[in-house]
Protein: tRNA (guanine-N(7)-)-methyltransferase
Organism: Luteococcus japonicus LSP_Lj1
Amino acid sequence: MQNQSPKRRVHREVVSFVRRSARMNESQTKAWENHHERWVLRVAQGETETSIAPQDPVDWAAVFGREAPLIVEIGSGAGESLVAMAKQHPEANIIAFEVFQPAVASTLSRMAREGVDNIRIVMGNGEQGLTHLFAPAPISELWLFFADPWHKVRHHKRRLVSADFAQLVRSRLVDGGLWRLATDWDDYAEWMREVLDHAPGLVNAHLDPADPENTGWAPRLEMRPVTKYERKGLAAGRTIHDLTYRTVRDDD
């Protein structure tokens, strides 16, 4: 009997999310079948199901059929805020990264109900998506709302907001581009401040030492709706923290 070659071990990268069940209900299945070919963009996959392989940057104008400012959201969930905010930005092409198929299917359903056509969804790791799918400095805004806080100290390495990720974001935003963040966990909010207030090429848009009223915390983004997740955090007594950072050139 011929010896079988041992299976190649797949390297599991450290990621900022946990995989959940991919089982879809009837309405999600219908939404997926009806809309994924139009609104879900297929990209080359890496070794794992949610990874994105190195490849040439995407021609986003060709994908959307128009030249327009690019906005990216990482972790769009079921699209509750994504679709509402995209409806308020008809002038923008919006790319959302989400790894959970049922959540993507729910987003597709929302898009169809609301008549929103300026979103394309990539099912994959958002950090790898920024790395591989975009050339330097095409993005006007990046949205990161309610990312997993990874409370335990030994899991802090899985937090998406880090010094390395900040430099990646800076490299993909246009000069003067905005990175908008929100969290309902105090410790993660302070972590983000510590990392991003000291990140080269990023400035806190609401931190002004000359004005004690501008403490660095952004006012709540009016166009961002209060989602089901956010309502749960408020009901539990947690505070919502918003932050906004702007890219600057080294000589600014």
Notes: The chain is about 30% helix and 15% strand. The helical segments are 26-39, 60-64, 80-87, 101-114, 126-133, 163-172, 186-196, 228-235.
